[in-house]
Amino acid sequence: MQNEENKGCLSGIGLMLGYLCMLGTAALIATWWADDFMATLITAFLFWLWIPILIGAVIAFILSFRLKTLHHKILFGLGIINILLISAYLWIQAPRQDCSADIMAEHYEHHKEGMRELEAYARQALDSGAYIHLEFDGQHIPIFHVQACSDSLISSHWDADGLADSLRAVVGLTADEMEGLRKRLTDLGCISVDINQSVPGINIGFRRVGLGMYFFRLYDKPMTATQWQAEMDAEEDVPYNRQVVFEYGAGAIGSMAFPGKDEYLQRQKKGPRKQ
Length: 275
Known about the structure:
Layout lengths: L12 H22 L1 H10 L1 H17 L6 H24 L7 H25 L5 E7 L2 E8 L16 H7 L4 H14 L3 E5 L5 E8 L2 E7 L6 H9 L3 E5 L2 E6 L11 H8 L7
Helix pairs in contact: 1-2, 1-3, 1-4, 3-4, 5-7
């Protein structure tokens, strides 16, 4: 008579696969918690691997309901942990990774004075003619592009924590001013600043969603009718008012168009766009 622990699918190779699927699912969830951009890349390019892993985890969880053996109990516990992690992610993290023109409009109205103050602070801190594109993720600096007035090309850097001191010196930022930019962006609920001393206005990075990113583009002067129509016609832009444009920067894959642009313009009666 077959031993009770070997009955059913959760034995031998099936048991090992159950553990691998459960742990693989936990690793994927942890990656989404740690870095949604990297998680999107991993999920997109290895979808052929993650689909069977997720299916295997569900099957292992269902088969563990009997709780007859220690392995059943461990797999059941891992399944519960994965469910709790997914639920917490959807409750806490997912809302921060959603964006639309309506969300940006509400956010802008709450922070418009602070955004203008950020521009004034950055212009006062930077050397004349300097340019920066600076992005923060907490204390981490994922992007730091700089150009001094005397440079002909932009010096682009990713994962620039170790280069921060030398790069800020190129454009005349002190350590305190750099921290001031980070704090002001945090207070605004934003993540990046893109500003050129030689060009009026500022781009403020709002959120990364998957491989794409949303920006506030603020002009110093109201747009002309021609400029307004050009923004209306640009697939990636949503003009909010005569001095503010919402911009979507697509990632390596996917549509270049601002998601939900036409529906938003129709609701706000700001159209029509030229076809």
